[in-house]
Amino acid sequence: MVVSTTTPGSDDAALHCTFASRYVRTALPRYKMPENSIPKEAAYQIISDELMLDGNPRLNLASFVTTWMEPEVDKLMMDSISKNYVDMDEYPVTTELQNRCVNMIAGLFNAPVGEHQTAVGVGTVGSSEAIMLAGLAFKRRWQNRRKAEGKPCDKPNIVTGANVQVCWEKFARYFEVELKEVKLREGYYVMDPVKAAEMVDENTICVAAILGSTLTGEFEDVKTLNDLLTEKNKETGWDTPIHVDAASGGFIAPFLYPDLVWDFRLPLVKSINVSGHKYGLVYAGVGWVVWRAKEDLPDELIFHINYLGSDQPTFTLNFSKGSSQIIAQYYQFIRLGFEGYKDIMENCMQNAKALKEGLEKTGRFEIVSKDVGVPLVAFALKDSSQHTVFEIAETLRKFGWIVPAYTMPADAEHIAVLRVVIREDFSFSLAERLLADIEKVLKEVDDRPSRSSTKAAQVTALLDETKGSEADGPVVKSVKHIEEGVTSYWKKFVDRKKTNGPC
After folding, report:
1. Contact 354, 431 (CB under 8 A)
2. What digits encode the pLDDT tens for the residues 328-375?
3. In sequence order, what are the residues at sequence separation of 6 or more whose Cβ sits closer than 8 angstroms to the Cβ of residue 44?
4. What residues have CB less than 8 Å from 374, skipping those under 6 apart?
5. At residue 500, does pLDDT exceed 50?
6. CB burial class (10 A; 0-12, 13-18, 19+) of residue 254?
7. Which fold has domain 75-110+124-334?
8. Are residues 441 and 394 in contact, defined by beta-carbon separation less than 8 angstroms?
9. Among 215, 170, 158, 197, which residue's Cα sits nearest to residue 412?
10. According to the UniProt entry, which residues carry N6-(pyridoxal phosphate)lysine (predicted)?
11. CA distance 76 to 391
12. pLDDT above 90: residue 222
């Protein structure tokens, strides 16, 4: 029999086994760089293990962002991951692919571009950058016009609905523009075009309409808004334009609702943004912004650089960025074509319909979203006196589902809903599985003490604390102390509502 021995200091295979190595047994510093390097296998395994605690992107029904692509486009993205998009002289083909995408998107949105003309637009890091760029163009055009008229230009504003994404609030705060929001009301969770037109004044740089509200998926009435602003512009001599935030709906409406007039067919629509990483079917993060015509993008906002090899015009907030998402967007366009996108969007809507019908059959929910819009289902409890949508969202996490629960913006804060976004990879089978798990959650929640009785018991216990015991002698607590304790309890309950927000 041969007896194997190990010589100290030899190349022991155990040291190359990740789980047997000392690197896994020894805690690594988290917030400072470690002194020594570790094997690549150990570094990979440590990070991979920790990432297992993240949620499953496929079950994240809060997000509109694409979570699945074909392996061929995955390979294309990895092949181009080292390309810096901004170096147009070094990577001219990538630049050409971006230009092709811009023109295809402009065609989808009915931009008035001739057959041999080039559309005006740019790829961005998501719709947030796209909105910043469009907003800056509106602000600069408004300022230039006001200066030419000899009028002050220090108080610009944008009119939009209270249902806007946070990126509009960021634009307003970062670039010093007042955000005038049309408040919502129960049963009407998008911007009212009549109220929006009424809020417009001489300092309004644009009205921002949303094609696919984050809250309910609804399309706002851009045509009515265009008609109302056209009349107001005639009466006042102003030139208030429209921007359409089509982040979610821009790759849905052209395929499912071709007769819906919301885009560059309306004269006052000067720019449109859309998220390639949502229903454009590309991984995060790529967005697009397209202008109606060259004159809608002021020349002074475009920078020209030559230190990368040639004259390169650029209009971005970022400089360096990856090329892979732009290449992936072009892949999806030529791979799927119009009919392919249409088929996918129709399938998403069918799955949304199946989920909606299943929820209605429970008898417990009211559907808040509409049939026309983004394929999602927003729904509220018919009776929230005993339990809330926040309890349902929290309990669904036990089954792996991430379903956001949130309250509506002003003036509909008393309405709390759950929302399920239907993406390409959310199949009919997953919809059935989700419905079955919702049924289990409803039963589990029903078996718990009601929300009102639990609160009452906790508040009573809190107040009983202030009485002390006879054995210990009287414990006297001030009214202020009691109020602080009760307030602390209620604050914890209210803060739970903020754990899931719209994405």
Report:
1. yes
2. 999 999 999 999 999 999 999 999 999 999 999 999 999 999 999 999
3. 18
4. 64, 212, 213, 217, 248, 249, 252, 279, 421
5. no
6. buried
7. Aspartate Aminotransferase; domain 2 (3.40.640)
8. no
9. 215
10. 278
11. 42
12. yes
Please tell me the pTM assigned to this model.
0.85
DSSP state of 398: G
Q: Per residue in 430-466, pLDDT tens? A: 999 999 999 999 999 999 887 655 554 554 454 455 4
- The tokens for 160 are 């939009």
Cβ of 215: how many Cβ atoms within 10 Å? 27
Which amino acid is it at 223?
A: K
Which residue do the tokens 């088929």 mark? 343
Residue 15 corresponds to which tokens in the numbers above? 């040291």
Average the pLDDT over each of 103-107, 248-252, 308-312, 444-448 and give the range with the smallest value: 308-312
Local structure of 178: helix, strand or coil: strand
Residues 347-376 as b/e (b if ≥16 CB within 10 A, e otherwise) read: bbbebbebbbebbeeeebbebbbeeebbbb
- Nearest residue to 369 via CA among 147, 217, 205: 217
Spans of all domains in the chain: 13-54, 75-110+124-334, 349-446, 451-498
CB of 431 closer than 8 Å to CB of 355: yes
Q: How many residues are recorded in the chain?
A: 503
Q: In sequence order, which residues have a C-beta less than 8 Å from that of residue 384 and are 6 or more positions away?
A: 416
The CATH code belonging to domain 13-54 is 4.10.280.50
Give the residue among 231, 238, 272, 234 at the shortest CA–CA distance from 137.
272
Position of tokens 């199949």? Answer: 427
C-alpha count within 13 angstroms, C-beta hemisphere, residue 36: 7
Tokens in use for 166? 């946070």
Each residue of 150-195: pLDDT tens digit? 999 999 999 999 998 899 999 999 999 999 999 999 999 999 999 9
Token look-up 């009424």 returns: 198
Write out the two tokens for 111.
């931009």
